[in-house]
Amino acid sequence: MQLEIITPESKVFTGEADAVQFPGLDGSFQVLSNHAAIISALSKGEVKVNLTNAYETNDDTNELIKADKSDKKVIRIDIKGGVMEMLNNKVIVLAE
């Protein structure tokens, strides 16, 4: 599935993911590829992304992205809250 994570300041991440775990208002939840359409508010916490391919850092890498040292296909991004929408296998996260 296609994933975009956007803050008011910048586009944090764009890429392909197999699964994304979110800090929901009532607890964490996860969406997988081809998940049903969903819109949810997010609380302060960590978004965990299981990528399709290994994550490569470069000079343009956003400082909010923390690459998992033991698994190159996992990244984590701390958010202060926001909203996520999944529709037609595309996830858009508007985060603070």
Report on this model:
There is one protein chain. With 96 residues, this protein is mostly beta strands. The protein has a single domain (2-95), classed as F0F1 ATP synthase delta/epsilon subunit, N-terminal (ATP Synthase, domain 1, Sandwich). The protein is 0% helix and 60% strand. Strands 1, 2, 3, 4, 5, 6, 7, 8 and 9 form a nine-stranded mixed β-sheet that branches. It is globular. The mean pLDDT is 90.
Name the descriptors.
mainly beta, 60% strand, ATP Synthase, domain 1, 96 residues, 9-stranded mixed sheet
Protein topology:
Elements: E1 2-6, E2 11-24, E3 27-32, E4 38-42, E5 45-51, E6 65-67, E7 74-79, E8 82-87, E9 90-95
Give a quick summary of the entry.
The protein contains no helices and 9 strands.
The number of E-state strands comes to 9
Helical residues, percent: under 10%
Q: At the third CATH level, what is the topology name? A: ATP Synthase, domain 1
Question: How far do the termini sit from each other?
Answer: 22 Å
Contiguous helical run count: 0
Number of domains: 1
What overall geometry do the principal axes of the alpha carbons give? globular
Instruction: Classify the beta-strand content into a percent band.
Output: over 45%
Global Rg: 12 Å
CATH fourth-tier homologous superfamily: F0F1 ATP synthase delta/epsilon subunit, N-terminal
Mean pLDDT: 90
Contiguous low-pLDDT stretches (5 residues minimum) are: none
User: Helix/strand/pairing class, anyone?
Assistant: mainly beta
Main sheet properties: 9 strands, mixed
**What's the helix-strand series?**
EEEEEEEEE
CATH architecture: Sandwich
Class, according to the CATH hierarchy?
Mainly Beta
